[in-house]
Each structure stands twice: as structure tokens, then as C-alpha cells.
Amino acid sequence: MKKSYSINIPAELLWKVILPSALILCLAGGAVGIFVVDKMVMPGIVHTDRQVVIVPAIVNLPWEKARQRLFDTGLRLQIRARQYDEKIPHECIISQQPAADEQVKKGRMVIVVVSKGSETGVVPDVRKLTERKAVIELRKLGFTVGKRKRDFSDSLEKDMVSQMSPAQGSSISKEMPVDLVISDGAKPTHADMPNLIGEGLLDAKKKIEDAGLKLGKLEYKTNATLSPGTVVSQSVPPGSSVPLESAVNIVVSVIN
């Protein structure tokens, strides 16, 4: 005959101790499970940092300073466009999206529009500045730097701006380029005579012109050991300092 067993638990113990303890354990286990899923499992699945940050106000700031402020907050900056603005200074932020004080996830991109400053402006006087400083000054004010050419100047040192077009004080659109003439210093009065011996006639002529000199009398001399058209001698010794535009006579080999 099969025996049956039973456990007698006092009702007071069941309701006051066992059932409440079981309920507490179930709730604690559920909370632990939610914590593990939320903090460990889900980030691994979606590969995101769930930390939330407050977007700082960056309107009116220079965009490089704004980028650093966003970086310090854990956000990134992206320039969507640049446009003229009469109120916002050149290279400063006109607008931002998301707006300041919004809550966003860390790593979010903040899209901005950067000011090109006023659409027109008065050309500053950058004469007597070095080329580098003049370019920086024009760009800082939102102007476009155009062509740059070099020329001799008796009054300005080398690499300083001697002329500009449009002229300083002109009111122009900032889309219009400002051309600069850069000083090469005082024009030299003498040149170093190049070595022409052994050069072909065409190369010798080019060396003479590049030195600021000119070809004088051209003579021919028979020489069977040299290729025809090779310079055999020159009237001014190589390395000599001679006045610009001086004439240089040369003798060139020929074969009878």
C-alpha cells in the first residue's frame, strides 16, 4: 500500500515569514535581472553609450572654441554651411542644432551654421605688412585673397606688401578678391657672371638672360674635339660681379 506524506506548516508562519520572504527574493531577483540587462547586455547589443549630456550654448562663439566646448562635453561639431550675417562676427556660430540645454546622448553631432561676417566691408590697409600677416588680416575680416605677384621696391624690405587692389579704404563685396604685390626688395644693380664654358649655345643664352645680362658679340672657332655649338670662352670671367644689362661676348666651337 502506497504511503502519502504531508508537511504541516503553521498558518501564521506561512503568511508572516515564508510568503513575504519569497516575494522579497522574487522582487530582488527581478531588479538584479533588469540591472544586468540594462547596463551589461543591451549596451553590448546596440553598441551605444547611454549617458545623457546637456548641450552647451555655442551661438556667437568662434567655431573652433565652440568645437572645443562641445568636445569637453562629449559632443561633436559639424559645419553645415557658411553664410553672411550682419550681426554675428566672422567665423562665429550663427545657429546650432540641437539647441542649447537640450538633453542628448553622449557622442551626438551638433550641426552649426558659421558666419562669413558682413557681405560687404572696407578693405583694410595691409601695406607694409609682411605677406603672411597681410593674408591673415584680410582673411580674419572675411575678405578673399586673390593673386599675389612679386616686384622690386626701393622703399620696402623683401616679403612686405607694397601695393593692393582694390585699394585700401574701398568698400567692396567680400567675394571680390584682393590682389597683392609683394616686395622683392631693392632691384639689384649688379649680377654674378655665370660659367658658360662647356654649355651649348641655347643654354648659354638662357643663363645670360636669367642673370640679367645680354649676349654681345658671338664668334665661332674651329674645334674638332667639341660638339658644334659648345661655348669655348667668354669675355667676362665666371663669378665676376658686373652691372646689369652688360653685354657678354662668347666664342662657340664649329667643325670645318
Descriptive account of the structure:
It contains 4 helices and 15 strands. The strands form 6 sheets. The chain has a 3-stranded mixed beta sheet, covered by helices on one side. It has a 3-stranded mixed beta sheet with strand order 7-10-8, covered by helices on one side. It has a 3-stranded mixed beta sheet with strand order 12-15-13. The longest helix is centred in the N-terminal third of the chain and has 36 residues. It is 26% helix and 31% strand. The chain folds into 3 domains: 64 residues, Trypsin Inhibitor V, Chain A, CATH 3.30.10; 64 residues, Trypsin Inhibitor V, Chain A, CATH 3.30.10.20; 65 residues, Trypsin Inhibitor V, Chain A (2-Layer Sandwich). With 256 residues, it is an alpha/beta fold.
Shape: elongated
Helix tally equals 4
What is the name of the CATH topology of the largest domain? Answer: Trypsin Inhibitor V, Chain A
Radius of gyration: 41 Å
CATH architecture of the largest domain: 2-Layer Sandwich
Distance between the termini: 144 Å
Tell me the number of structural domains.
Answer: 3
